[in-house]
C-alpha cells in the first residue's frame, strides 16, 4: 500500500507492476540467500563471520530496494535509501505488533 500510495502521489501509478515485480524478485533472491546463511548457523557456537556476512546481505538488500525505489519514484538515491529504511522499519513494527 505504501508503494502504491507513493507512486500515485507522484503520478507514476503505471510503474506499480514493475516496481512490485522487481521488489518481489529481489526479495525472493535475498530471502533464499538469508535462509541458506541461517541454515549454516550453529546456536551453540559464536560465529562472527557468518553474522557479518548476513549483515552485509541485509545492507545489500536495503541498497537494492533503495535503487528500485529511486527509479520507480524518480528520486535521488539518498531519498531512495530513506524510503527503503522507513518501509523496512514500518514492516518490522507491524510484524512485531501483530506477532508479538
What does this structure look like?
This protein is mainly alpha-helical. It has one domain. Helix content is 81%, strand content 0%. It is built from four helices and no strands. It has helices spanning 2-9, 16-39, 48-73, 77-99. It starts with a helix and ends with a helix.
Structural class: mainly alpha
Helical content stands at over 70%
Number of domains: 1
Compressed to H and E, one letter per element, the order equals HHHH
Q: Which range does the strand content fall in?
A: under 5%
Largest sheet: none
Question: What labels describe this entry?
Answer:
4 helices; single chain; mainly alpha
Chart the SSEs and their pairings.
Layout: H1 2-9, H2 16-39, H3 48-73, H4 77-99
Concise account of the structure shown:
This protein is mainly α. It has helices at residues 2-9, 16-39, 48-73, 77-99.
Amino acid at each position: 500500500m505504501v508503494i502504491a500510495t507513493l507512486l500515485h502521489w507522484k503520478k507514476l501509478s503505471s510503474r506499480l507492476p514493475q516496481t512490485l515485480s522487481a521488489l518481489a524478485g529481489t526479495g525472493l533472491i535475498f530471502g533464499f540467500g538469508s535462509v541458506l546463511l541461517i541454515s549454516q548457523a550453529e546456536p551453540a557456537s559464536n560465529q562472527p563471520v557468518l553474522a557479518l556476512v548476513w549483515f552485509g546481505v541485509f545492507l545489500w538488500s536495503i541498497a537494492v530496494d533503495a535503487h528500485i525505489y529511486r527509479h520507480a519514484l524518480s528520486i535521488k538515491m539518498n531519498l531512495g535509501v530513506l524510503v527503503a529504511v522507513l518501509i523496512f522499519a514500518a514492516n518490522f513494527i507491524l510484524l512485531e505488533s501483530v506477532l508479538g
